[in-house]
Amino acid sequence: MQVLAFLSKQRAMGTSTLACHVAVQAQLTGHGPVTLTGLRHDPILSNWAGLRQGRHPLYEETSLADLGAVLEKQNRAGVRLSVIDCAFEDEDTLFRMAGASDLVVVPTHAATEALAQASGCAALAEQQRKPFIFVINAAELDSEAIGDALGDAAMYLAQHGTVSPVIMPQNDDLGTSIRMGQTIVELNRTSPASSEVARLWDYLLSRLDRVPRQATHSFRASLPNLPVAAEPERKALPVRVLHGALAAGARSFRRLPLPIESGKSLWRDVTTTPSARAFARTLKAQRPSVIGPRAEVVGNLESTGDIHFHAHYEGEIRARTLRVCRDASIRGLIIADAVTVEGAVRGRIRAAKVILTKGASVSGEVLYEKLVVRKGAILDGHCRRVEPVPALAQIKALESA
After folding, report:
1. Residue 219 confidence (pLDDT)
2. pLDDT in tens, 9-22
3. Which of 185, 263, 272, 362 shows a CA-CA span of 20 to 30 A to 253?
4. pLDDT digits over 90-138, tens only?
5. Residue 252 predicted with pLDDT over 80
6. In which band, very low, low, confident or very high, does the pLDDT at 145 lie, cut at 50, 70 and 90?
7. Which of 160, 35, 16, 20 is nearest to 88 (CA)?
């Protein structure tokens, strides 16, 4: 029996939905018997299993203390694949769960905070010397700007490990089908969402096939019921500074991805090459200034680079690019070449490109050359398209004249 674990440190990464669909797809394509196991009570998956009336894959809930016994029972019953849903658990649970898995899947969104959490979760699997795959999930693919953000996210994740070539798009039908006791691959096998689930399972299967199969395996030994203090000492996870959804520092560039072909990720070690060192220096020089959530700033702020804002701010901001993160709120004037709003802005925005993501709230005046408003964003105020909007450097030159 092989164990495929879906691990996540955060809620709302779509971990349970993804694990459920992959388990069903594996069962439908002849890789069963498959079981789906949850490490905590999930009312949605419990309802899903009840509506299925015993159809495979079977769903079982357990605890970390009993998981070893459950896996051994499944193994003796002839289960070929056990898919484990382990979302929003503490770090020690994720660490132990990674140790009992043959392959770890880390779903994540393209937001900066989610990427940082995903890299930390993957580091736990890496410490256990287990293979892991990043899967960008619930992605919106309806604009060029969003495509750029997904590309940045994939590049950042690639510095930490292998990234699935399959990006799961945002599709409410996946969650709806779960609440009906089904999955999208059972309701409509010809839908685009079903095709993406099938492609993802094919890719994960190709990775599972690379894992050596053991004739005998003790799942109890993989999950010792020990106090945390008795576990082998682990190194503290490194804190990495993000810049444009990339990580700076020499360790982050020990591997660079080559083009993905036929669903496979090819890698080469470039740590010692001059071009890799130059690439690292360039990225480090371009990393943004990050203003944390505990700060409350009043006044004027000017930067010739990029700023990621998590704070509450009142005043005027001038920057090359500005990202207003989900936990940030800004009241005042923003002047930049490009502005991405995930949080709240009250006031005026002057930028060549303005992107409002899901959950953003903007009230006031927006002067733009290109405006992208994603589903779920709120825009209340006066918007005016001007072509072209002066770049920050030109604005400064005009004001100083």
Report:
1. 60
2. 877 788 888 999 99
3. 263
4. 788 888 888 888 999 999 888 777 888 888 888 888 888 899 999 988 7
5. no
6. very low
7. 16
63-54-177 Cα angle (round to 5): 85
Judged on CB neighbours under 10 Å (0-12, 13-18, 19+), 88 is middle
How far apart are the C-alpha atoms of 173 and 316, rounded to whole Å? 42
The pLDDT, as a whole number, for residue 266 is 30
Q: 362: closest CA among 396, 394, 322, 399?
A: 322
C-alpha to C-alpha distances, 177 to 50, 187, 193, 391, nearest whole angstrom? 14, 8, 11, 47
Q: Where are the domains of the chain?
A: 2-230, 289-400
Q: Is 169 in contact with 109 (CB distance < 8 Å)? A: no
d(C-alpha 323, C-alpha 350), whole Å: 14
pLDDT at 314 over 50: yes
Contact 301, 315 (CB under 8 A): yes
DSSP structure class, residue 261:
B
**Mean pLDDT computed over 157-171:** 84
Highest mean pLDDT among 16-30, 163-177, 386-400: 16-30
DSSP-assigned states of every residue in 305-350: SEEEE-SEEEEEEEEEEEEE-TT-EEEEEEEEEEEEESSEEEEEEE
Q: List CB contacts of 384: < 8 A, sequence separation 6 or more.
A: 365, 366, 367, 368
Q: Is 237 within 8 Å of 94 (Cβ atoms)?
A: no
Question: Which has the closest alpha carbon to 339: 309, 312, 301, 376?
Answer: 309
Return the percent helix, strand and coil in the chain, to nearest 5. Answer: 35, 30, 35
CATH superfamily, domain at 2-230? P-loop containing nucleotide triphosphate hydrolases (3.40.50.300)
